[in-house]
Amino acid sequence: MSANEREQSTRAEPDSYEAAVERLEQIIDRLDSGQAGLRETLELCREGRALVEYCSGELDAVSAGLQELRLDELTAKLEGA
Amino acid sequence: MRRRARVSLIGEITGLSRSKAQAYFELRDAEGAVPGAIWLNDLEKLELPAGGLRDGAEVVIGGGPEYYPGSPQSSPGFRFRATHVRLAGEGDLLARLEALRKQLRAEGLFELQKQLARPALPRTIGVVTAESGAARRDLLAGLQRRGWAGTVVWGFAPVQDRRAAPAIAAAIKGLAARPEVEAIVVTRGGGSLADLWAFCDETLCRSVALLRVPVISAVGHERDATLVDDVAAVACSTPTHAAEAVVPLECAEARRSLGRCLAMLRRSGEGAVGIRTRHLVALARGPGRALRRERAALNQRTREMRAASERGVGERRAFQRRLATVVLERAARRAAGPEDRSRREALRRAEVAFRAHDPERTLERGYALAEDGDGEPVISAAAALVAGRVRLRFADGRVGARIDHPDADPPAADAGGSEQDLR
Question: Is the model's pLDDT at B77 over the cut of 80?
Fold first, then answer.
């Protein structure tokens, strides 16, 4: 993987929470192996922090407070619009 | 027509109404409906359980066709005159359910939902249930226990009568059409198979199977197995379990896990930099240390060389000095030659002469030396008279002597108070 590709993959937004967690586990396994060089380690840490931030944002999104909507009202609103 | 053969029909009671003498209803199945009626007298003789004959009840009725010729106030018509009614046993329903289950499985409709990916942390979920019911409350409580507080879109629908299945299917389709809905829960409480029959509806189940949004079913209790459970992505026994299935993540634990990940990442980053920094610092100090080591070794060698040089010069100097001394002595002896010998001879003679004049030698020959009290020699008679008392020094010692006038008588041999100092 080239440096540019690595940078792009670092910046890419995860598809989902579970994809982010899976990638995070891969990163931690790689770091735990002790085989990553300095540059790779720093890039993995940067990517990992971004993933943790993303996951925290997802958790925040479902922790703000329960919102209850009615399908019939939403449908009526859609049809009225 | 009354003599026509009696038949038994199976169907669901709908549109039940009563007059003073009869009960009217339609007997409906998936194909259509037949109008029917039963005399209340006949119905009471059957001793059905209270509320047994009601809308939505699955029944088996016995009887035959009847023609009503009409009256001046009413129209003629055909209807099914029931003389016997019994509630359909679960055996009837189970047989139909198993046949339908076999058919749907053969079509592969049980697997489609199970192949869909279910989000671990959906932001919006759709729920199809009765607006008033324990299932709604239990599901919300379950979601709260997961620490989940996202958005719920309620698709309320009847869950127990003949209108239930189409309404449930419409609600599910409506929810699935909304892009923000990531998973759908279909739930209601327990009941008899007849009560849950709407969830075995073929049209409903086919609709669920073909949705691209995962559906979690929690219909009835654990022992109740409806057809929608078979086609759903996940079948749960209770609404509480459905909450855990639709939000697989326990949010508080997920936050703790993220915290641990973050700490690990921080340690890794700082550790990787720290280890390498210390290594680089050690490497950077290397040349300085090597220079100091070499400089110390060089200084030590210089001191050793200087000491060796000084020691060599000293030895060389001492050797030269000894050599010069020897050479000079030899040269001096060579230079002195006969003169030195004559001087030595003269010295020897002078020593002999000196020894001949030594007073000690004279005293050894029997002479005596007169000395005053201070040890000074008394060298004249006049001085002796003046001194009065002298000491005579012989070779073997001193004696005291009194000096008398020359004309005085010599003292007696025993009268003299001479003193003796023999040494």
Answer: yes
Cross-chain residue pair B265–A38, CB shorter than 8 Å: no
How many beta-carbon contacts under 8 Å exist across A and B? Answer: 105
Largest CA distance in chain A: 61
Residue A20, Cα to own-chain centre: how many angstroms? 4
Contact by Cβ (8 Å): B181, B213: yes
Q: Tens of pLDDT along B230-256? A: 999 999 989 999 999 999 999 989 999
Residue B90 confidence (pLDDT): 58
Do A42 and A1 contact (CB within 8 A), yes or no? no
The sign of the torsion formed by the CA atoms of B47, B49, B53, B57 equals: negative
SS3 B214: coil
Query: Is it the case that residue A2 has pLDDT exceeding 80?
Result: no
Q: Which two tokens stand for residue B344?
A: 């030595």
Q: Percentages helix, strand, coil for chain A, rounded to the nearest 5? A: 75, 5, 20
Q: Buried (b) or exposed (e) across B33-56, using 16+ Cβ within 10 A?
A: ebebbbeeebbeeeebeeeebeeb
* Average pLDDT of the segment spanning B134-152: 92
Residues B245-271: what's their mean pLDDT? Answer: 90
CA pair distance B367, B310, nearest whole angstrom: 67
What is the spatial order of strands in the sheet that B369-371 belongs to? B369-371, B389-394, B397-402, B420-422
- Whether residue A18 and residue B266 make contact (CB cut-off 8 A), yes or no, is no
The amino acid that residue B380 corresponds to is S
Please give the structure tokens belonging to residue A55.
């996951």
Closest-CA residue to B363 (of B390, B400, B398, B389): B398
Name the DSSP letter for residue B68: E
B273 touches chain A (CB under 8 A): yes
pLDDT surpasses 70 at B421: no
Selected for mutation to probe chain B from A55, A62, A63, A69 (highest B CB count within 10 Å) is A62
Q: What is the bridge-based pairing of β-strands B389-394 and B369-371?
A: antiparallel
For B27, other C-beta atoms within 10 Å of its C-beta total 22
Whole-angstrom distance between the N-terminal and C-terminal Cα of chain B? 198
